[in-house]
Specification:
By secondary structure, the chain is α+β, with helices and mostly antiparallel strands. Helices cover 27% and strands 31% of the residues. Strands 1-4-3-2 form a four-stranded antiparallel β-sheet. The chain is globular and about 35 Å long.
């Protein structure tokens, strides 16, 4: 799961606690961690859903200004049969 540096910084600051991914197979598991260039990321609950089920509140929690901004981002992502909502939190420096 690749995450841009500015998103990682916002997760570390506590401003973002959700991520969304579209893929053919998940690369993270609930309860797992992900080593990033800034430190450790904790993976919380993961839920399958349809992109149209993402709420305005979820879009804000993922760092988007609004729901249309989320949909513009989604349109740039590669296609995949699985779309997931992933809770994330900062796990500390490595």
């Amino acid at each position: 799961m690749l995450i841009k540096r500015e998103i990682l910084e916002a997760i570390r600051a506590g401003d973002i606690d959700l991520q969304f991914r579209r893929w053919t197979r998940p690369t993270v598991k609930p309860g797992g961690t992900l080593k990033t260039p800034l430190g450790l990321l904790r993976i919380g609950a993961i839920a399958d859903l349809r992109p149209e089920d993402v709420s305005e509140a979820d879009a804000h929690r993922a760092g988007f200004a609004d729901l249309p901004a989320f949909h513009r981002w989604l349109a740039t992502m590669k296609q995949g049969p699985l779309f997931q909502r992933i809770e994330v939190s900062w796990g500390g420096d490595t």
